[in-house]
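Re-run requested by the PI after the first attempt was lost when the workstation crashed. Everything re-entered from the original request form. Ligand of interest: uracil.
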Amino acid sequence: MSVHIGAKKGDIADKILLPGDPLRAKYIAEKFLENPVCYNEVRGMLGYTGTYKGHKVSVQGTGMGIPSASIYTNELIREYDVKKLMRVGTCGALNEDVHVRDLVLAQAAVTNSAFMKADFPNHTFAPIADYDLLSTAYDVAKEKGFNIHVGNVLSDDSFYKDDLSDTFKLGKHGVLGVEMEAAVLYYLASKYGVQALALMTVSDHMITGEETTSEERQSTFDEMMIVGLETLIKE
Ligand SMILES: O=P(O)(O)O[C@H]1O[C@H](CO)[C@@H](O)[C@H]1O
Ligand SMILES: O=c1cc[nH]c(=O)[nH]1
């Protein structure tokens, strides 16, 4: 057991889906995995392992924001030898061509978080997706006819902001959406030499104001889960 995950070594697959919301982890396990076993309830941050089309796969909630996601990502890689990590999250759209319920693949992630500065105070590290996972996920989504966009995202340290001018300016620089974890997932994957990808469903639109319900964020968005699982099991 690690500090925040109550599983034994071997209880967690080397391929994992990472939703922010632990109840989305439960939804994915119950709807998509065969024989799911809950390996973690510590802090209510649910984690499950089961099989998908014969492959052992896990799904673990990470909580919201970079500090929480970094704890789970660190422990999964360092204590449980997870090798392929795929975030399945939600984001707000920052581009008029990206619509609510569309999929966004984060090719890279801008961040206003200082976490990388702790390791590299004199550099601006560019957190990028694993190319093989990115290309596979894109192909899976296209084959299935899902609406998918690939590009930069913003991993923001704040959900509630008084001033959104920088957020909208980033949108004008091609950033497709805002979420809160992709950058740390990519940074830790590069640090430890494992593969990571962040896939988001657009849950709300920052420009048009269109939204989904909190119930829908917790327990639907099946297109994203299918792309995530199919990508993880392809070698
Ligand atoms: O739906 P999840 O995966 O939690 O992702 C997004 O939703 C949360 C904010 O509501 C943040 O964690 C953000 O990244
Ligand atoms: O971080 C997030 C997630 C979804 N929608 C947003 O506007 N921000």
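Saved to the shared folder this time. The two ends are 28 Å apart (CA to CA).
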